[in-house]
Amino acid sequence: MKKHTLALAVLPVAAILLALGIVGCTEHRSKPPREMGGLDDKLSTFAWKEDGNLVALIADTRPARYVEEANYMPLEIAVANRGLNELVLTRESFTLVDETGQKYSVVAPQELLQNYDFLDRDRATLAELFGIVDQKFSTFTYYPSKLSPTKTGGPFAPSPPGAGGVVRDQVTLPKFGYMVDFIYFPKPATGVKDHRFELQMSSPALPADNNPIFVKFMVI
């Protein structure tokens, strides 16, 4: 009888603990990813995605982690137009924000050609995003983009098709169109590897309450 009485006494205590949220892991499951880590979801080991209803923005950090000693930070990016009639993007559409809130603009082609020696190598050996998003956006139409230069005309496999040739100052994506490209920023004052960043993308085509859109990522 004593053992039976003890079991009955424990049951109400467990019920109280559950009600207070002390027992169980429901708190962990209820937190959204952005609150827990301050980062967006991953598409691959190095690629981070913001899957919006209107536009998807993806930042791949593989190039950045392997050229940390350079004066520039390369990113491979992908943009897919899901819901806008037309999306026009230029180098000025993109801004990098570091952990301190400092903002960086995309480096101009002429500066890269004069001061950065790895433009061709980045596309030829560190590109990976086209093979990933080509499956993700298999029903979309690919549009070539080349916002940053190369020193030769290519080919730059596995860089996306259209990476050779002249630099383009803008790319136009109709609805259900997507692009993949490299863009470069000045090396952030915080450093690169093991630091968090936000890539912002603005466009007049985006609604005011969702402009810019952004993806939060970490270079690992």
Provide the gyration radius in Å.
23 Å
Main pleated sheet: 6 strands, mixed
Identify the overall geometry: globular
Estimated structural class: alpha+beta
How far apart lie the N and C ends?
60 Å
Number of distinct beta strands: 12
Q: Give the strand order of the largest sheet, numbering strands 1, 2, ... along the chain.
A: 1-2-3-4-10-8
What's the mean pLDDT score? 86
Order of helices and strands: HHHEEEHEEEEHHHEEEEE
Share of residues in helices: 25-40%
How many domains, in number, for the residues? 2
Strand content: 25-35%
Number of separate helices? 7
List unreliable stretches of 5+ residues: 1-11, 13-36
Structure description:
- It is built from seven helices and twelve strands.
- With 220 residues, it is α+β, with helices and mostly antiparallel strands.
- It folds into two domains: 30 residues; 186 residues, no CATH class.
- The strands form three sheets. Strands 1-2-3-4-10-8 form a six-stranded mixed beta sheet.
- A hairpin with a 3-residue loop joins strand 2 and strand 3.
- The protein is globular, with a radius of gyration of 23 Å.
- The N terminus is likely disordered.
Features:
220 residues; alpha+beta; 6-stranded mixed beta sheet; 4-stranded antiparallel beta sheet; 7 helices; globular; disordered N terminus
What's this, in brief?
With 220 residues, the chain is an alpha+beta fold. It is 26% helix and 29% strand.
